[in-house]
Amino acid sequence: MNIKPLIFGLVFTASFCYSARGIACQTDNDSTKYNQFFDAGMLKYKRSDFSGALKDFETVVSLNQKYGKAYQLKAACERELRLFENAVHDYSKAIDINKNDWESYLGRGISLHQLNKFEKALS
What we know:
The chain has 123 residues and is mainly α.
């Protein structure tokens, strides 16, 4: 039996969960449910299924309103779908949760630019 691939798979899975979610994997029942939707949303987002991913991220934030990364990715889907007002709102929610979330500042600025709100985009 070759154990190395198994160990690599466990390490890869753990690091993916940590980096993709911005938090360590959790195992309690409440977080398991929204983490499943988060993972499904990530896969759909990577496949450019922005409508499908948006639905998953909407579910995540309905289950956990403090999940900043989910708001950020929800906003990214909205931006791809040209729902710029919604994207600005959700990027702002992500920033409220994590003031150091540079990706949300960037996404909000791009969304505001698309809405021709140039002065707001600079702030």
